[in-house]
Specification:
Strand content: 15-25%
CATH superfamily: Coproporphyrinogen III oxidase, aerobic
Subunit structure: Homodimer.
Largest sheet: 7 strands, antiparallel
Catalytic activity: coproporphyrinogen III + O2 + 2 H(+) = protoporphyrinogen IX + 2 CO2 + 2 H2O
CATH class: Alpha Beta
Number of helices: 10
Strand order of the largest sheet: 1-2-3-4-5-6-9
Mean pLDDT: 90
GO cellular component, one term: cytoplasm
Function: Involved in the heme biosynthesis. Catalyzes the aerobic oxidative decarboxylation of propionate groups of rings A and B of coproporphyrinogen-III to yield the vinyl groups in protoporphyrinogen-IX.
CATH architecture: 3-Layer(aba) Sandwich
Number of strands: 9
Low-confidence stretches: none
Enzyme class: oxidoreductase
């Protein structure tokens, strides 16, 4: 099915669109963090074909004591806000898909394929600022093509009104650019996200969800427009957290709980994430694949937070909920 109202995007337009998304997000992160915390840029080549990528990585100071200092809040504007983060753009061309992928998608051996997109993860220092993940991508092999992408939020000390605002922003993007027939509605994307970012061995979701779409292959022009706008929406989605929550003071208990909760993030990425599995199986670039992991995390044996604590409150958020219809009188 193709659109009769809009021109079908070319491979070059899609590639350049993703590159623009990377640039805009990086500008936002630099500006919002005060301009002093710069990323390191790594331009790399795809050695098993052609193309490559640009990885932009933030790695904060390793001065744990400083970030727990009582003067942290007064010095906040001079402090690094991103402990570990990265915004990656890639565009690769190859002809040797993993056999499992080639079989699943009925792609003949040695078929040329292209894969391009932007992937990002931000792990902040402050436990009051949630981790965020976003991915927007395009794949093509012969006559087969599809778009995919999504965004999800992983707070440690969530505030209900902020979670509702996050989902409201996502719904606005879907209402304006998504379509039910293209499977890009908010309801479908949210349900898929709740299902995908679930840790079965823990019985909980990774965070408070968001949107997740994969194998979108109906109406290329409209689907590309949706994916493009979803990528740019990152700024509106994350700005309230990065601007408003970074100045909230925190103590060692909160920092320790943040590190403990990060272990769940690592478990999901290494055990269940499709992108990680595909990257490893296809002998992709290891540094880019594992960029999403936090700099520091902890595991504690059989740990359970005490009842009626802010730490225990998080667990009430780690299940699928109809965020847009939450009772605002019960704000946390």
């Amino acid at each position: 099915m193709t659109s009769t109202n809009e021109p079908i995007p070319t491979e070059e337009e899609i590639k350049n669109g993703f590159k623009f998304i990377q640039d805009e997000i990086c500008k936002f992160l630099i500006t919002t963090t005060g301009g002093h915390q710069q990323y390191s840029e790594d331009k790399w080549d795809y050695t098993k074909g052609s193309g490559g990528g640009i990885s932009r990585v933030w790695e904060g100071k390793e001065e744990e004591g400083f970030y727990l200092n009582q003067d942290y809040q007064s010095q906040n504007n001079k402090c690094d806000k991103i402990e570990k983060g990265g915004v990656n753009f890639s565009y690769i061309v190859g002809s040797n898909l993993p056999s499992a992928a080639a079989t699943q998608f009925k792609i003949a051996p040695d078929t040329k394929y292209i894969a391009t997109g932007v992937s990002l993860v931000i792990h902040p220092y402050n436990p009051n600022v949630p981790t965020i993940h976003m991915n927007v991508r395009y794949f093509e092999a012969g006559d087969v093509w599809w778009f995919g992408g999504g965004v999800d939020l992983t707070p440690v000390y969530p505030k209900l009104d902020q979670v509702v605002e996050f989902h409201s922003t996502l719904k606005k993007v879907c209402d304006q650019y998504g379509q039910e027939e293209n499977k890009t509605s908010y309801a479908l994307g949210k349900a898929e996200c709740d299902s995908y970012f679930f840790l079965p061995h823990r019985g909980e979701t990774r965070g408070v969800g968001g949107l997740f779409f994969d194998h979108l292959k109906s109406d290329k022009a409209k689907t590309w427009k949706f994916i493009y706008q979803l990528g740019l929406s990152f700024i509106d989605l994350y700005k309230p957290f990065l601007v408003n929550n970074s100045s909230i003071s925190y103590d060692k208990v909160q920092r320790e709980y943040q590190l403990y909760r990060r272990s769940r993030y690592v478990e999901f990425n290494l055990l269940f994430d499709r992108g990680t599995k595909f990257g490893i199986l296809s002998e992709g670039r290891t540094e880019s694949i594992l960029m999403s992991l936090p700099a520091v995390c902890k595991w504690k044996y059989n740990y359970k937070p005490e009842e009626n604590t802010p730490e225990a409150n998080l667990l009430t958020f780690l299940r699928p909920r109809d965020w847009l219809n939450e009772n605002q009188e019960n704000k946390n």
